[in-house]
Amino acid sequence: MSFLLHGIGVSAGIAIGRAQLVSHATLEVAHYQIRPEQVAAEIARFDAAVAQVTQELDTLWTQIQETDTASEVGAFIDVHAMLLRDEMLTQAPREIIAAELCNAEWALTQQMYRLVEQFEQIEDPYLRERKNDVIQVVERVLTVLLGKPGQVQIQHPEQRTILVAHDLSPADMIRYKKHAFAAFLTDLGGATSHTAIVAKSLNIPAVVALHNGRGLIREGEWLIVDGLRSVVIVNPDKPVLAEYRLKQEEFELERQKLKRLKTKRATTLDGQLVELHANIELPTDLRDVLDSGASGVGLFRSEFLFLNRQGLPSEDEQFEAYRSVAVGMAGRPVVVRTFDLGADKHMEGISAGLDRVAMNPALGLRAVRFCLSEPRLFVTQLRAILRASHYGKVKILIPMLCNVYELTQALQLIERAKESLRVEHTKFDDNIEVGGMIEIPAAALSIGAFAERLDFLSVGTNDLIQYTLAIDRADDAVAHLYDPLHPAVLRLLAMAIRGATKAGKPIAVCGEMAGEIAFTRILLGLGLREFSMHPNHLLEVKQRVLTSDVPPLEILANKMLKTDDPDRLASYVQRLRA
Ligand code: PEP
Ligand code: MG
Prior knowledge:
With 578 residues, the chain is an alpha/beta fold. It has helices spanning 39-64, 70-85, 87-90, 92-100, 104-120, 125-129, 131-146, 170-176, 194-201, 213-216, 238-258, 286-292, 315-328, 367-373, 375-388, 404-423, 441-445, 447-453, 461-469, 487-502, 517-525, 538-546, 550-562, 566-577; strands spanning 3-6, 8-11, 14-21, 161-165, 183-186, 206-208, 222-226, 231-234, 275-280, 297-301, 334-337, 394-398, 434-438, 456-459, 507-509, 530-533. Strands 1-8-7-3-4-5-6-2 form an eight-stranded mixed β-sheet. It binds phosphoenolpyruvate and magnesium ion.
């Protein structure tokens, strides 16, 4: 039976392929059938994994006895070991394997979900939280079963595969860069969640916030994913398939046509030059940047170097990453944002307070707050960026600034990093520019103080909108409230752009808004002349810039900012978009 699912399209384009279901945010588990004669071997494989994790926990317990965190961690390990002896985890999955003829990973994950559900019913908050121990211990067993964490096997290599998950973390997404999937679908997430942002960088369609897609779609079913219209068609019939194949071709053709604009300067009809920069997560994204004809890298989300690994990347490793981008961009600017870890981006094995469970991680120890609480880690990164500045036009960008004291501290640490390099006679650009991200309303409202102390500014609209409208950008339940055109957002944006311009400091927008043609003319009207976006959107935005006449846009934008009447606002917006 054919049916339609609606979500939020985060990456345009059309994909047609077969569904592959994955089961968990951090350890994606494929579901496959086994034959009856394979059951015994599958159960043995499961038992061996449980035995290995029990052994690992024993070893861990012995190791930590000498450390000062012994009692806390020891208690933790005890709970995990106890759970691993319980029949609910050791026996039930065996029964599921035999009854459902499925792989061990799948059986274990199904049992985990059942247990988690039971724990969620418990009144006592302490006991309720034990569900996290169940998840963690299951993850340990899955890690062993899968051989390596995060491995996902393409189940239908002969066909185009569409990954269907309840949720995917940004780290999962980065892993998928290596695989050739045709599209991604998730039940959770919002348009500006980091998962969505990375999906874009994979250059394939994705739809998030499907709510119950993972429960409704079955393994191997045919799907059409329309990222532009935010829909998924499950089991399409022949005429619909034919229609979408045609649409797919048209979309590709349009994309090809835009390539002609690659080397053209982005100048408005009234002759104003607009800088169009690219956002990247990893040095491997450089090829897309060069293909897009971007005039620089406006945002290198350096924290992605930290994901999917145990331990911190060394200074040399980081230096190599920054240097390769600087060299690749051949003198064009490369803005390296210092780590924005925390909130939805976590690193395995990092101590530093990030592994504690914050009630509101988006409001917690994140980005510059985290870096200032871990000065050694921060200075290591700053040294790596400074060293790379010798090889190109590298700039430093500090995320999530809230007050000038944070900025003062960050500038002191930059000075400390510089001094340590001077002592070693290591070359770097002593005049390296330092910029700050305006992503907290408080920073936009006090833009003057930041503009005075910084060389440039960059507005992170994804976070600015999240914090202004009090909506968690990764939470699909409030995704409908995400509104870049809320008058409060527009006024804060105008305030930041005008404040920086008045102080004579360049300002960019590097949030998702910068890459959406629906907002290009509004931003131009607000005075923006620098945009940084995913490279896939750059040529489309350039086409928009080339056909825009700024003076009338400025008049309309001024009117738009002044009105409190929603209908009038809508009408100005419509005229600005035309
Ligand atoms: C933003 O917040 O708009 C931004 C560009 O940074 P990130 O999306 O990585 O938080
Ligand atoms: Mg941000």
